[in-house]
Design a protein that fits this description.
By secondary structure, the chain is an alpha+beta fold. It has helices at residues 2-20, 23-30, 127-132, 153-179, and strands at residues 36-39, 42-43, 48-53, 61-65, 73-78, 85-90, 98-107, 115-122.
């Protein structure tokens, strides 16, 4: 009974992985593996992106379509590196932030018509660029509360004196109350 339950759970997990996968991963599963790798997968406008796939076979090539992001079509040529077809395109400077599906359709080497897809995320600024352009804050923070080293030393001295008088008066009143004197 326990073994049957484990097998049923495993079968449901495998089935739901195909149903819950993102569109690019689902396309790769449907195509029998060998999805489209997009590198880097998160870019800023103006970046050159490399795309590769093993789905087209060792001698296969593909026509890529990056028109979703505004880059148009490009060619993936056979490569000796892991028997992949590799191509590049440039994300246009006018690209808007979002997630875009990049598609490649294989041709040649018996894989005609096989389609694979991968996701490309376009952001406004990259984390590396944000780190390079980080600016340290300067000057005083104007919160309305003031500070010990404010711009006017006379006002700071007056504030310290007022606090000292209030502390001394409070101490004197508490001392009188403890002795039983009436106020």
């Amino acid at each position: 009974m326990r073994r049957a339950r484990l097998l049923t759970t495993a079968a449901l997990a495998v089935a739901s992985a195909g149903l819950l996968a993102p569109p690019a991963a689902a396309a790769a599963l449907a195509a029998g593996g060998g999805g489209l790798e997009v590198s880097p997968s998160t870019v800023t406008p103006g970046t050159t992106v490399t795309v590769n796939t093993a789905a087209c076979g060792s001698d296969g090539a593909a026509t890529g379509d990056a028109s979703a992001v505004g880059a148009g079509s490009f060619t993936l040529a056979p490569s000796t590196h892991r028997e992949n077809a590799i191509g590049q395109f440039k994300v246009p400077p006018s690209a808007q932030p979002g997630t875009y599906e990049i598609v490649a359709k294989c041709w040649g080497s018996g894989s005609d018509g096989k389609e694979v897809a991968g996701d490309l995320v376009v952001t406004v600024t990259s984390t590396a660029a944000a780190r390079e352009h980080r600016v340290a804050p300067k000057g005083h923070v104007k919160t309305g509360v003031g500070g010990a080293l404010g711009p006017d030393p006379v006002q700071t001295a007056a504030g310290v004196a007022a606090l000292a008088v209030a502390a001394a008066g409070g101490t004197w009143l508490l001392h009188r109350r403890a002795r039983g004197d009436r106020i």
